[in-house]
Amino acid sequence: MIVSAICAGRPAPLPGGTVSAIAKTPLEGPVVVSLSGVTGDTQVNRRFHGYPAMAVHLFPAEHYAWLRERFGDLPALAGPGGMGENLHASGIGEEQVCIGDRFRLGTALLEASQPRQPCATIERHLGTKGVVKAMVESGRTGMFFRVLEKGTAQAGDTLDKVEGGSPDWTLRRAFFAVYGKTHADAATLAQLIALPRVSDRLVRDARKRLERPYKRL
């Protein structure tokens, strides 16, 4: 699982007037990864991502080819960071990483906390409709990590799994359970909520799903 780029972004306007730091660019040399994320990165909307449970976002490099196949040559995906990711990595996916899995990246220790929930900002950034729907239907969403130990890392480092989390709960299963078109039943959602290393935001959204099963989150 190779991290080919570590990326950061600054707030900038998107079409429609929204301000976002979704457009990120690769950083050179060793980068400090702290409890609040990659040094130099900005997280504008703390409701949907941010410190501490969602400090670092990873989007699998393989998904870029899938997006191009579905939506054509998107200029925003010309290089790493185009999907708002801090870590552009290959050999890793939502179907294999479980909630609570821990990884060493350089000297930093990361813990998988939840899948990403795609939002309209992605489509404003890419200038293309239908991307969010395709991500939701496929479960190709990316993932978030909390940082357990501050450290340094750089492009070319590997994500080395050092400890397993909840083996029955891959990030893709967690995504479909809470955000999918056909979400999980109450017993399954309760099981997800009880996981020891799940993010507080995913717990909140799972509880909302229990209270309002048919409302879009």
UniProtKB/TrEMBL annotation:
<dbReference type="InterPro" id="IPR011037">
    <property type="entry name" value="Pyrv_Knase-like_insert_dom_sf"/>
</dbReference>
<dbReference type="GO" id="GO:0030151">
    <property type="term" value="F:molybdenum ion binding"/>
</dbReference>
<dbReference type="InterPro" id="IPR052353">
    <property type="entry name" value="Benzoxazolinone_Detox_Enz"/>
</dbReference>
<dbReference type="GO" id="GO:0003824">
    <property type="term" value="F:catalytic activity"/>
</dbReference>
<protein>
    <submittedName>
        <fullName>Sulfurase</fullName>
    </submittedName>
</protein>
<dbReference type="Pfam" id="PF03473">
    <property type="entry name" value="MOSC"/>
</dbReference>
<dbReference type="InterPro" id="IPR005302">
    <property type="entry name" value="MoCF_Sase_C"/>
</dbReference>
<feature type="domain" description="MOSC">
    <location>
        <begin position="25"/>
        <end position="162"/>
    </location>
</feature>
<dbReference type="GO" id="GO:0030170">
    <property type="term" value="F:pyridoxal phosphate binding"/>
</dbReference>
